[in-house]
Amino acid sequence: QVQLVESGGGLVQAGGSLRLSCAASGRAFSSYPMGWFRQAPGKEREFVAAITGNTYYADSVKGRFTISRDNAKNTVDLQMNSLKPEDTAVYYCAARLSSYYSGSLFSGTQYDLWGQGTQVTVSS
Fold first, then answer.
1. CA-to-CA distance for 23 and 21, rounded, in angstroms?
2. 20 near 9, Cβ under 8 Å?
3. Does residue 7 sit in helix, strand or coil?
4. pLDDT per residue over 61-118, tens digit each?
5. What is 35-102 written as a DSSP string?
6. Phi, psi for 54 (deg, rounded to 5)
7. Residues 6 or more apart from 99 whose CB is under 8 A from it?
8. Which residues of 95-117 are buried (b: 16+ CB within 10 A; e: fewer)?
């Protein structure tokens, strides 16, 4: 079964750090675009970061968050530093199940598989 499982969420004070991890199983994901999205209460899901051979970030997290992948472990991580209360959300890992894509990886419609999400809460 092909699936994504996120971990690493939790409660942290503003200015702190968290590292989210997404474990992929069922096939090798090394050649697939992978992304992180988030959804805060009452708000639409928004793009956070993506990785192919390059990395892409939303302006709101650029310089604070880093996306990386370990192909040997079939994982994609999101290192989040200098966290702010507005980063509070459920964070979702996503994968496109093909190496090929057209359009922007900033759009959730590019992704075929989603994890269940992990809660990140940043207190002020």
1. 6
2. yes
3. strand
4. 999 999 999 999 999 999 999 999 999 999 999 999 988 888 899 999 999 999 999 9
5. EEEEE-TTS--EEEEEESSSEEE-TTTTTTEEEEEETTTTEEEEEE-S--GGG-EEEEEEE-SSS---
6. -115, 170
7. 31, 32, 33
8. bbeeeeeeeebbeeebbebbbeb
